[in-house]
Amino acid sequence: MFYTQLEAAKEGFVTDEMKIVAQKEGIPEERLRELVAAGQVVIPCNRNHICIDPEGIGKALRTKINVNLGTSRDVTDYDSEMEKVNWAIRLGAESIMDLSTHGDTRIFRRKLTGECKAMIGTVPVYDSVIHHKKDLAELTAEDFLDTIRLHAEDGVDFVTLHCGITRQTIDQIRKHKRRLNIVSRGGSLLFAWMSMTGQENPFYEYFDDILEICRLHDVTISLGDACRPGCLADATDVCQIEELVRLGELTKRAREKGVQVIVEGPGHVPLNQIQANMELEDSLCGSAPFYVLGPLVTDIAPGYDHITAAIGGAVAGMHGASFLCYVTPAEHLALPNAEDVKEGIMAFKIAAHAADIARGIRGARDRDDAMADARKVLDWEQQYACAIDPERARSIRDSRAPEKDHSETCSMCGKFCAVRSMNKALNSEYIDIL
Fold first, then answer.
1. CATH of 5-359 among 3.20.20.540, 1.10.10.10, 3.40.190.10, 3.50.50.60
2. Is 186 annotated as ligand-binding?
3. Is 306 assigned to a binding site?
4. What whole-number distance in Å separates Cα of residue 136 and Cα of residue 142?
5. 231 labelled as ligand-binding?
6. Where are the domains of the chain?
7. Is 116 annotated as a binding residue?
8. What's the pLDDT tens digit per position in 261-271?
9. Is the full-model pTM beyond 0.70?
10. Family per UniProt (predicted)?
11. Is the CB of residue 333 less than 8 Å from the CB of residue 373?
12. Is residue 46 marked as binding?
């Protein structure tokens, strides 16, 4: 009996989920099986998430995007969160991460895995405090593992676990004097727990026990980057790279146990360092799918960080990142509302699409070519059909409609339209401007 997609692939068996993904991606089933067997593609698909529409993440596949949602102490509105979920699914997000830190988190989590066809991810360390009703220092290693087990039983497809931060990291952070220390929420909680208790990181110390939990339910482990840079000054420093080396070792151990793995990548990285970061992860982690937050290419754009991050995401995807975690305009400022979620998703759908074109993914440029054809003949309805957001494209044009006698153009150029002039010139027609 195969517990995981990885175990099945290693034994030469093509699962139903692999068949679905292969059809979506337009690649041979056997080729996909080989990539899954090598750990270069994962199909996060918990056996208990029965309504999931499987997606693959990794080499030779379309770049996928993740949407972070969830409640906080200041904003606990499950209806609002489900509205964001519905927006995300409608706009084409392949994954939802529930990062709730307040309220009865299990209600929302089980609603997601019971109704949502997208992949569902969580960060169990957040929920450990809430579920066990203990403050951080009072939690035990078994409490942390129990929370992972609970999330697996609830149908979560992947869990972010900051397994690479150890007591050695405490010394490194104190010694190297980062400009912004640790900005990973999960990483900071584990750093604090280790500092207060004097114990080793339970996610690292009991990694084999975690693998057994994840294997039983086919939960993919997303190896969290606790030491990801939170500002440009900390990018690609010794703390980040040392943790990445350890994540590479843990990736190998997980694969040997039949557990699927993705590796999380940096947050704030200068544009000129992104390619090196992607190549380093690929080398150290055995080409495991790389899941990046942005990366953000400047630190000074609060309110516009969806743009900052989408620029980095497109470059990261071009150089090998398989999974982009969206960033919204509210990043660094507040819990995102529904409009923030939409803005973040659209920015990252564009970034992922741009990366797929650059990588030569089969069919990635088809819509772009169709758009060019529609623009050539000034076919506005076909242009809307090709657009990534047809409703917005139509509403902008309709709100600033051109004069009736040159309605085939737009209100920017009118009869000065280059496409109109060229079409008439090439057809030997008179070109009227005035």
1. 3.20.20.540
2. yes
3. no
4. 13
5. no
6. 5-359, 365-427
7. no
8. 999 999 999 99
9. yes
10. Belongs to the ThiC family.
11. no
12. no
